[in-house]
Design brief:
The structure is a single chain. With about 300 residues, the chain is an alpha/beta fold. Helices cover about 50% and strands about 15% of the residues. The strands form two sheets. The protein has a seven-stranded mixed β-sheet, sandwiched between helices. Strands 6-7 form a two-stranded antiparallel sheet. Helix 1 crosses helix 4 and helix 4 packs across helix 8. The protein starts with a helix and ends in an 18-residue tail after the last helix.
């Protein structure tokens, strides 16, 4: 029989081994899912999301609190159904991503069922001022990489590295094809997107990321204060670029690319006016397909307790 000291030592070694193996196992799982047809990956994600909902836990609690906060007009049953569907769509996004990374852009364009208002992108590009596309955590933003080269010659996507080298390598390889450039969410990445906009190119950013400490300000989102990134405001002020909202709505058999005008006040010289307009723009998109938004995302972190 082992001593308490030996048992603790074994647990410590196991924990260390698990921590070291996690990136490799994650990379292996991503590669395996990437070999699946997109439809099968989507179905698998839906089942995982349903299981997550049934098991409960912190993710479900955060989603439910956010839905209750943002849609108080819905009945308890309607709110619960929105939570369930949202978790399914979030899991579908996660499962679809490796399949999108692994396939050629030419093949992936087959899944594009329609492009709504794509002429808005083409018209804005003609101005030569640079175009900032704001893509909330709505639908599946991963499919935009394969789609956008049809509309623009060159586009830079800003992304958040996971910190796990093996997984980040797969993600970067899968996303950077056919004129698509990637910029990490860092000082270097900000400089990269700034230069792209100044050169009259297109940049895409997820505008509803919870900003790092010191890089965000509170602004109303669905009637409640939410930490909001100031990067969009700074890029507009520095470059005078045009701004559009965009998201890839999940539909039967593929995706529909949806483009919308941003709230005009997003171009205001006043920071807080611009941030409020940014959140109104995101909210307007979310209200079109609220079940496809990532409600487990902690937009209200630090401002309202769950």
């Amino acid at each position: 029989m082992s001593t308490p000291h030996q048992a603790r030592a074994r647990r410590k070694r196991l924990k260390h081994f698990t921590r070291r193996m996690r990136p490799a196992l994650g990379s292996l799982a991503i590669r395996a899912v990437g070999k699946l047809p997109l439809s099968l990956a989507r179905s698998m994600g839906a089942m995982i999301g349903q299981l997550t909902y049934r098991l409960g836990g912190r993710t479900v609690e955060v989603s439910r609190a956010n839905v209750q906060r943002c849609f108080p007009e819905l009945s308890a049953a309607q709110q619960d159904e929105l939570v369930r569907l949202s978790l399914q769509h979030t899991a579908m996004t996660a499962a679809e991503a490796p399949a999108i990374w692994a396939q050629s852009y030419r093949r992936l364009r087959h899944y594009l069922r329609s492009i709504d208002s794509v002429r808005m992108i083409e018209a804005q590009q003609a101005s030569g001022r640079g175009l900032l596309l704001l893509a909330p955590h709505l639908g599946n933003w991963e499919i935009m990489g394969p789609v956008m080269p049809r509309c623009v010659e060159r586009i830079t996507f800003m992304y958040q590295p996971t910190g796990m080298e093996a997984i980040d390598s797969l993600m970067v390889q899968g996303r950077s094809k056919d004129g698509v450039m990637l910029a990490p969410a860092s000082r270097q990445g900000v400089s990269q997107v700034l230069k792209a906009l100044q050169a009259g190119e297109v940049v895409a950013i997820l505008p509803d990321q919870v900003p790092d400490v010191g890089s965000g300000e509170p602004a109303q989102f669905f009637g409640h204060p939410a930490q909001t990134m100031t990067l969009v405001y700074k890029l507009i002020q520095r470059t005078g670029c045009d701004v559009l909202m965009i998201f890839a709505k999940r539909v039967r058999g593929g995706f529909q690319l949806v483009v919308r005008e941003a709230d005009p006040d997003i171009r205001s010289d006043d920071l807080h006016t611009s941030l409020a307009a940014l959140n109104r723009s995101v909210e307007a998109c979310v209200r079109e397909v609220p079940e496809q938004y990532q409600w487990e995302y902690k937009r209200f972190k630090g401002l309202e307790s769950l």
